[in-house]
Amino acid sequence: MIDARRLVKDYGTFRALDEVSFSFEDPGIFGIIGHNGAGKTTLLKCMAGLIQPTAGDLIIEGIDVRRNPARLKEILGGYLPEESRLYETMTVESYLRFLGIFMASLQTNAESGVGSCSNHLNWIHRGKRIGELSKGMRRKVAIARSLLHKPSLLIYDEPTSGLDPMTSRYIISYLAHLRDTWQKTILLSAHNLYQVEEICDRVLILRQGKVAASGRWKSSGNSLAPCHTISGLSQLILLPFHLHSILKRKAGSM
């Protein structure tokens, strides 16, 4: 379970996160959406333990991230940024094996981890040098890297950004597979609302570092019935609207 309470992150005089609160039960896919500069990446980095919140509480699987960030690495597959750095001179297989052995805690299952990733991610050209791969193929390698030691928690920052429709579709389908088959908890940010609708069990909408809305999506015919909390209200409101309609209405009122 992930529980954030009045989370604040300041960069000097600039407040990137302003008392952000939400909770999310695993397994499932939790989507964070908002305009550029809304605080999505900052929030994901806080949850990955890469940066420390200025104030507030952040509990992930019983681990207090502010007070014990080292323990988070035991369950975290890694933070996958929008642009991932890879060793371009290595082949895909040698790169994954190198990382599996490099991490001391992964030595016993490095081989099985690489094999498992390669079997499930069979679209990766294992013998090719990473520098010869397309952007979409590199993104798939980065996803495989995050799965090496079979973590329970994955954090992806816009995993389909800049990819062609076919590759984007494959990755989204694979994330749903990780949730449904491997019981993974996935936190992701996205701009593509169709993808958010398709795979996210719960959504957090950020605006200028504040929570504009949060909700759980439930199927209702051909539309969605989100149950979400508007910032500043204490009650849950059930609105049987399509996600795009909600965002359009909210954008007009902000």
Going across the biggest sheet, name each strand in turn.
Answer: 6-7-8-3-9-10-13-14
What value does the Rg take, in angstroms? 19 Å
- Outline type: globular
Helix content: 25-40%
Number of strands: 14
Order of helices and strands: EEEHEEHEHHHEHEHEEEEEEH
Count of individual helical segments: 8
Q: Oligomerization state of this entry?
A: single chain
Please tell me the overall pLDDT: 78
The termini sit apart by 31 Å
Class computed from helices, strands and strand pairing: alpha/beta
Strand content: 25-35%
Let me know the largest β-sheet: 8 strands, mixed
Question: Any overview of this molecule?
Answer:
The chain has 254 residues and is α/β, with parallel strands linked by helices. The protein has a domain of 67 residues. Helices cover 32% and strands 29% of the residues. The strands form 3 sheets. It has an 8-stranded mixed β-sheet with strand order 6-7-8-3-9-10-13-14, with helices on both faces. A hairpin with a 2-residue loop joins β4 and β5. It is globular and about 45 Å long. It starts with a strand and ends with a helix. About 12% of the residues have low confidence.
